[in-house]
Structure formats: structure tokens, C-alpha cells
Write a structure and sequence with these properties.
This protein is α+β, with helices and mostly antiparallel strands. The chain has 8 helices and 10 strands. The longest helix has 22 residues.
């Protein structure tokens, strides 16, 4: 799933390639991606792109007509830029193509989604805050005003485990499964530790890990072409998706805890005092 660093890199890329150009066609291929119907998708056609924004993991293309074309790439969605789009309209089918956006230059991009769980979402709205997922977003962790005090206030009284708290978009915007693993590894904390149990020093350490991990990931992704962002993300991960590999910090074997629809990875030596974590259903350390 694209998270804050990749979506921020896509925002930079699209700002360079879209702003000042006219959108002449917005062609849906998979109707399931459309989450709004008024204004219709075609209402964005004829708009000159004035800006591209990021709201958490949402991409927001602002048009000169006052409309916004917003997308959330979800778990398996992606944006594929093409300097020259194929001639003729795309044909509906069972492939990954979901939506095509064409510019007056002949360039544009496709939104694609792999797999059978179709969660890619596209909206056309007058105000991005009309979208429920954006309206409920918590603060952006890389915003200038997001300091340690504000972070501590968010976690105060939070009875959930750190892994779940970090992934909650209404608490903090933009962090998903991969970077929550990376942040907790950098902070040397168990994903099952209760957020409300953090000491002042632990809160400070987690805040520093949050900001550093995301900032470094954004810098690695900056300037990378859209088609290479997935590979760039994977190359920078230390524990997420690396079950069975040695931890780059201590050399212990990276372990995994499976959920019904996802998994987390962690290093026992760095994060849990050498003890393996129990199955997620037990929600506690093995004794």
C-alpha cells in the first residue's frame, strides 16, 4: 500500500507533470472506483490543473473550475504515468486498468489496481473535506506544527497497542502497515506495547523515530519516477516484508505476526527484549 512518503513523491511528480496543463479526458474503465456521482466525473474535463495536494494517503488534483479530482490508491492501487497515452479509449475488461486521465499534450496517467479486492477510490468534489476519509484525518506527522507535545497529547489515554494507534488515520494521517513497523523498529518498541503506557522518554523516542523514518523515506523517494517508487520503498525498509532475514541493526532474525488480512514484522532483540511475540489473537508476549 502506498503510504505518506510514496504519496508525497507522487504529489511532487504530478505537480511537475500536471500543473498548467488541461485535462481533456477522464475515462473510467472500472466503474467500481467511482465513489461520487455529482458532479459527474466528466465535469473535470476542460480543467487546467492548478495544484496537486496530499491529504494523508489521498492525492488531490485541483482544477481551474474549482473541482478536485481525488484518489486513494488503497492497498493494491498505483499510478502509472505515460508520456504518450495509447490511441483510442481503453477497453473495459478484467485487467488492472481502472481509470485514465489524458492531457492536451497526449500525455497522462492510468490508475491501476491489482488483485480481486477492489478498493481503489476516485472522487470529484468541490471541497476535499466532503470526502469522509479526508474529513476524519488526524494531523500530518510531517507538518511544521506537529511537535512532540502534540504527539504526546494524541497518545495520552490511548488504550490501543502502538501498532494500531500509529495506523489509525484519524489519529495520525499517512502511516500504514509498512512504516508503522519501521517506526517501531527505529524506536526499539514492541508493536503490542500500549500507547498509554509510554513514559516521557519513550514518547520522545517514538516521536523522533516517527519524524526521522518518514522524513528519510520522503527524501529517498523525492525525484524518483512514479514507476520506480515501489522498488524504492522496498529497498529502504529494514524489517517490514523481511521475515527470516537478519536485522540490519543487531543481526537477529526478523520475525512476523500474522493477522487475518495483513502481517507485521519486528526484531525480537531490538524491540521485545529477545522474546518472540505471541500470535496476534493472544495480544500479549509469550511467557
Amino acid at each position: 500500500m502506498p503510504e505518506l512518503p510514496e504519496v508525497e513523491a507522487l504529489r511532487d511528480f504530478l505537480t511537475e507533470h500536471l500543473v498548467g496543463h488541461e485535462v481533456v479526458r477522464v475515462l473510467p474503465v472500472a466503474i467500481s472506483v467511482l465513489k461520487t456521482y455529482d458532479p459527474p466525473l466528466g465535469a473535470f474535463e476542460g480543467s487546467e490543473v492548478t495544484a496537486v495536494h496530499r491529504h494523508g494517503k489521498f492525492l488531490d488534483i485541483a482544477g481551474s473550475t474549482g473541482l478536485h479530482l481525488v484518489t486513494h490508491l488503497a492497498r493494491a492501487g498505483w499510478l502509472q504515468w505515460k508520456d504518450r497515452l495509447p490511441d483510442g479509449p481503453p477497453k473495459p475488461g478484467k485487467g488492472p486498468l481502472a481509470l485514465r486521465v489524458a492531457l492536451e499534450t497526449g500525455a497522462g496517467f492510468d490508475l491501476t489496481e491489482a488483485g480481486t479486492q477492489k478498493r481503489l477510490a476516485v472522487y470529484v468534489v468541490h471541497d476535499p473535506r466532503q470526502i469522509e476519509g479526508i474529513a476524519r484525518l488526524g494531523p500530518d506527522p510531517l507538518a511544521d506544527g506537529f511537535d512532540e507535545g502534540r504527539f504526546a497529547a494524541l497518545l495520552k489515554g490511548e488504550r490501543r497497542q502502538l501498532k494500531g494507534a500509529l495506523r489509525d488515520q484519524s489519529l495520525i494521517a499517512g502511516v500504514g502497515n509498512a512504516y508503522s513497523d519501521e517506526i517501531l523498529h527505529a524506536a526499539k518498541m514492541s508493536p503490542f506495547k500500549l500507547a498509554s503506557s509510554l513514559t516521557q522518554e519513550e514518547t520522545r523516542r517514538l516521536y523522533a523515530a516517527l519524524r526521522t523514518t518518514l522524513t528519510e523515506a520522503v527524501e529517498r523517494s523525492r525525484g524518483v519516477a512514479a514507476g520506480r517508487l515501489k522498488a524504492e520503498k522496498k529497498s529502504g525498509l529494514r524489517v517490514h516484508g523481511r521475515t527470516g532475514e537478519p536485522c540490519p541493526v543487531c543481526g537477529d532474525t526478523v520475525r512476523e505476526v500474522s493477522f487475518s488480512d495483513s502481517s507485521l514484522q519486528y526484531c525480537p532483540t531490538c524491540q521485545t527484549g529477545g522474546r518472540p511475540l505471541a500470535d496476534r489473537r493472544l495480544s500479549r508476549l509469550l511467557k
